[in-house]
Amino acid sequence: MELRNSLSLAAALCLLAACTTPPSPQPTASGGSSPSYEPPVAKVVPKPPASVAAKPEPDKAREVPPELSQPWGYVLPTDYGVRRDEGGRGAFLAPRYHGKHNGVDLLAPIGTPTFAPCEGKARSGVSKSFGKWVKVVCPVPDELSDGHQIFASLFYCHLSKTEVGSDLVRVRRGQKVGEVGKTGNASGKSIAPHLHFEVILQDSEKKAVAERHSGRDQSDTKAADRFLDSLDEHCLRPNSFERRGADTRRARRADPFVVLSCLGREKPDYERAPAPLSTSGERWSELYSAKAFDVDRGRDAPL
Which residues does 263 contact at the CB level (< 8 Å), separation at least 6? Predict the structure, then answer.
């Protein structure tokens, strides 16, 4: 009996020792010991860095400051060129009874909307010669003001309808200010409908708002000198942009096509006007040339 109890106790002690002794490492194929087991750990795969859009190569043909703080738009939704009909030519500095044309006549059908090319202020009025008109006054972009305040008085004439009243109001870039017409001295049958558009430079907003755009007033301003010198430095000479056989200024006035081409980026491509105006205009390339861009299509169309 005692012998049986001793054997049972010995068996129990042996079993307990077998359960608490760690297993011996198993030999590997190469004769070594296999590593102890470790639970799998989820791998954290780092996210690839967000792709950075490659900066476009600068357009070497565009010599005007590429990031104007106040880039201008165009004043019409379509471009049918310059008026040229039985009533005369509408180019800047074309012959007129007071000497020379102070603006440019943009050919367009009656009712074509006209837009403010820049942020500014506007008002409207009526006169015997200009008909229904709108004046938009905008600051010139800092990059082209030579460190001085310069304001442009932009004059829209012969309108059939105006969208602003006689009191000065703020307008945003691209806002409709009127519609093309044949009012004032453009009402004759020999004159095709068009927008007469002028640009005058003044050294204060007050003077620009008070500007009368009288054809008989050919006084100059320091603001015009500064702006036109800067335009020549940053746009005309670098791009070999010029008006063939004619100047691009008259006293405090600047050639509107040159101003819109140099300050704007949204000029629509020239296209021939629909009948009955198809024979009443000429394309810009008949009057202007540039070695860096297509004048009929604008500064965003390099040659």
Answer: 64, 68, 71, 72, 117, 141, 144
